TrEMBL record:
Gene source species: Alteromonas confluentis
PANTHER family: COLANIC BIOSYNTHESIS UDP-GLUCOSE LIPID CARRIER TRANSFERASE (PTHR30576), UNDECAPRENYL-PHOSPHATE N-ACETYLGALACTOSAMINYL 1-PHOSPHATE TRANSFERASE-RELATED (PTHR30576:SF0)
InterPro entries, per database record: Bact_transf, EPS_sugar_tfrase, Sugar_tfrase_EpsB_2
Protein name as it appears in the record: Sugar transferase
Similarity comment: Belongs to the bacterial sugar transferase family.
Gene Ontology molecular function: phosphotransferase activity, for other substituted phosphate groups
Subcellular location: Membrane
Keywords from the named record: Membrane, Transferase, Transmembrane, Transmembrane helix
Length: 470
């Protein structure tokens, strides 16, 4: 096994084991304190083991589902805290339901679970702070070096400037390769002048390099194949720039893609046949669940829109518009109307962040994504999914297909109410913005999975609750 994959696996295993011990210990300590201060009576060891065990397993599974044990999690410390709250909060309800339904005779004092959950959250937050900031438990960064210092390599400098972008690796520097476009290349990063020859192995060993990223502008006749082959045999990971950016940033750099990379990649079609077969039933179930709680808000929204300008203009509270769906098939999307009835009297226009066509109530329902709720009916009809790229208008798709490479690949999956691009890219309405969002859309198409869908759903709920939408 390659060194960096082995190290990543080792780090993840250490993290899971340590947090399991911490959670179990805090559950035990919580019961001990409740007994000492007279709130709870002493319980049998079997009863304590069952309850602490359920809580530990539940928290580990929920933490896994929200990506807390993902080796390449790119998140600020504040984001990690939010994920801890979500995972422990979900575990609280799971343990409460399971213990009441299956182990009623083993139920602890009513104060045990809230107290244990509170102490566990505090403990995990403190633990993650020190492991992330100080690199404890061997959770240090992977040391990498980049072959290339030209235009292609500069994408790392431009797109990964912040510390949070480099949380998983320690970049030693960039090694110039003959043929690099230095004029448009690296400007502010460390340049390492070392020959990539038979002595390169010593340089790798002296600097404890675990991974080499190939980012040179010209490969033919300039890439030291024999040297890289020897590095690979010695367990050093050799990664193409596109794969590196995909792994570290959660996007596919479309403007740097080349045909051979697409051919040798795992493609942009789902290989999860069970997930595909259950797709409609899962989405319909989720849509029914959301509709059960959301219908009062939908009714109130419809009444307010009608009172705001629908009564005066006679316009519908709903807005139907043709969009491009799965495999390019057209369908009518349904939304609450957030713009004036004459918003497109001069033809189709991109929506902008502070669009003056938006009504008073429209600003509010856009911010909290309430205008998206009628799309539940599109989900029931099988035209949309909960998670997927946002469906675009055919007028814009026709233009984008001509100007943005690989744009049609985003239609390999159903469009969705929420998506990876919406979470990772701010609101935008131009060809350039579409290019940037496509990088995230293609990443989702290529890596779609149940865990990724769960992560997107959780982060979308966070956006709705805290009003971080448009």
């Amino acid at each position: 096994m390659a060194i960096n994959k082995h190290n990543q696996s080792k780090r993840s295993n250490i993290l899971v084991l340590t947090e399991a011990l911490l959670v179990a210990y805090m559950g035990y300590i919580t019961q001990f304190i409740l007994v000492q201060i007279g709130i709870s009576e002493p319980v049998s060891i079997e009863k304590l083991v069952v309850n602490v065990g359920m809580l530990t397993v539940s928290i580990l599974l929920c933490s896994l589902s929200v990506g807390l044990y993902e080796a390449k999690l790119r998140e600020t410390f504040r984001g990690i805290i939010r994920r801890i709250f979500v995972s422990v909060g979900l575990s609280y309800f799971l343990v409460e339901v399971v213990s009441r339904a299956l182990f009623d005779e083993l139920t602890m004092h009513s104060y045990f679970l809230p107290a244990a959950v509170s102490s566990i959250i505090i403990t995990l937050v403190i633990f993650r702070y020190f492991t992330n900031r100080l690199g404890l438990l061997g959770l240090g960064k992977v040391r990498i070096v980049v072959l290339g210092a030209g235009e292609r390599a500069s994408i790392i400098e431009k797109r990964m400037r912040r510390d949070v972008d480099r949380i998983g690796f320690d970049l030693l520097g960039f090694i110039p390769i003959p043929g690099d476009n230095r004029e448009d290349g690296i400007k502010n990063e460390k340049i390492i002048h070392v020959k990539v020859d038979e002595n390169f192995q010593q340089f790798i060993a002296d600097n404890e390099i675990e991974e080499i990223v190939i980012a040179c502008d010209q490969r033919r006749g300039t890439l030291p194949i024999d040297v890289l082959f020897e590095c690979r045999l010695r367990g050093i990971e050799v990664t193409d720039l596109l794969d590196f950016m995909e792994r570290e940033t959660g996007q596919i750099v479309v403007n740097l893609m080349y045909p051979s990379w697409v051919i040798y990649s795992n493609g942009f079609h789902s290989q999860n046949y069970l997930r595909d077969a259950m797709d409609y039933f899962l989405n319909a179930f989720l849509a029914s669940f959301v509709f059960f709680f959301a219908w009062p808000f939908m009714l109130i929204t419809a009444i307010i829109i009608w009172l705001d300008d629908g009564r005066r203009t006679g316009a519908s509270v709903f807005y139907k518009q043709e969009r491009v769906g799965l495999n390019g098939k057209l369908f009518k999307i349904i939304k609450f109307r957030s713009m004036r009835p004459d918003a497109e009297k001069d033809g189709a226009k991109w929506a902008s962040k502070n669009d003056d066509r938006v009504t008073r109530i429209g600003h509010f329902i856009r911010k909290y994504r309430v205008d998206e709720l009628p799309q539940l009916f599109n989900v029931f009809k099988g035209e949309m999914a909960f998670i997927g790229p946002r469906p675009e208008r055919p007028e814009f798709v026709e233009k984008l297909v001509r100007e943005v490479p690989y744009y049609n690949q985003r239609h390999n999956v159903k469009p969705g109410l929420a998506g990876w691009a919406q979470l990772n890219y701010p609101y935008g309405a131009s060809v350039e913005d579409s290019m940037e969002k496509l990088k995230f859309d293609l990443y989702y198409v290529k890596h779609q999975s149940l865990l990724l869908d769960i992560l997107i759903l959780i982060r979308t709920v966070e956006i709705v609750l805290f009003g971080k939408g448009r």
